[in-house]
Amino acid sequence: MKIVVTGGAGFIGSNFVQYEVNRYPEDEIINLDLLTYAGNLESVAPVADKKNYRFVRGDIADRAFVFDFFEKEKPDIVINFAAESHVDRSITDPEVFVRTNVVGTTTLLDACRTYGIKRYHQVSTDEVYGDLPLDRPDLFFTEETPLHTSSPYSSAKAAADLFVQAYHRTYGLPVTISRCSNNYGPYHFPEKLIPLVISRALNNEEVPVYGEGKNVRDWLYVTDHCSAIDLVVRKGRVGEVYNIGGHNERSNLEVVQTILRALNKPESLIHFVKDRPGHDLRYAMDPTKIETELGWKPEYTFDTGIPVTIDWYLNHRDWWEHIVSGEYQKYFEKMY
Ligand code: NAD
Ligand code: DAU
Fold this sequence. Notes:
The chain is of the alpha/beta class and 336 residues long. Helix content is 43%, strand content 17%. It has helices at residues 11-23, 63-73, 87-92, 95-115, 152-171, 193-202, 222-235, 252-262, 288-294, 302-315, 317-324, 327-335, and strands at 2-6, 28-33, 53-57, 77-80, 119-125, 175-180, 182-184, 207-210, 216-221, 241-244, 249-251, 270-273. The strands form 3 sheets. It has a 7-stranded parallel beta sheet, with helices on both faces. Helix 2 (63-73) runs parallel beside helix 4 and helix 6 (193-202) packs parallel to helix 8 (252-262). The termini are far apart.
């Protein structure tokens, strides 16, 4: 089968490309990525020379390019990871989020219905459900929870999900959607909380914690997200949404303290800064459907995944140091 993975040079996409290329030598994996600030071909270097892998640079929101690409490649499966993914960037510059996350998705959907595909899979997020209160640990997001977004990022992701569902109902396109909680692990761009804390603490730099650090996220090791998507694409029911999460809720302060302890760094590095506008309080996924229907089980807990992640950053200093010293640094200074 010919599988197009969009956004395969980003954090989760690059982990997924490596997962698929190694696991399915009989399939052909095409990584279609624009290489924005978040795209990095070093993240797919371990599979770059494999016979069943190819990279194509292109913009999913460029209709002429996408239709030419489909005409030439005629993919069997499209898995759409490509997105603008950082909430803080969506607050300062929402427009590109509409372009890539909404227009990009509908452009792919139009190409899929024009050329025909066996499956279109949309990689979505728990953020489309909004947030849960901090004082109701009994509440979780299910697939039936109404969409109720907070940021320009989550609004654009929710709009994309609705288009995917509309193309299924109106045109009969064979689609699936997965909605996952916060990922962490190798190749995570150091603007996001966990790699930001690891990289800054290793350089003995202050670590910014928004507000009082009480907001809660539900953390999943990235390869567990990859195995879940693989299952949904190959075995999930067409037209369905599957929530993905591993019940690993931690407050941001707990996350930061855990990392500082593991690195033997002092808590005096913690610097409480102005809160994110509209900051979602708590995310927590109920993954019962994917567990019972598809037999998915995560391999890592937060306590086992964090040491593995820290080791990866210690052993791959080159990967993140050149990001931190480049364009990202200018962005970081503008934000803080
Ligand atoms: P990322 O920002 O690390 O990577 C995004 C990739 O998309 C980059 O390689 C970038 O170059 C590419 N891209 C951006 N615009 C493009 C365009 N117009 N055309 C083609 N490629 C383009 O993102 P990520 O954290 O790996 O997230 C991947 C997907 O998973 C996103 O759809 C995101 O909404 C979703 N998601 C992320 C998380 C998380 O915790 N990071 C959790 C749940 C869902
Ligand atoms: O829940 C899934 C989402 O997780 C994905 O859809 C997004 O693409 C992904 O970026 C992530 O969004 P978050 O906003 O939760 O991740 P981020 O790493 O930006 O922030 C995690 C938490 O840490 C959040 O509550 C904000 C806080 N934070 C973040 C940064 C960057 C800080 O306190 N300090 C920081 O410097």
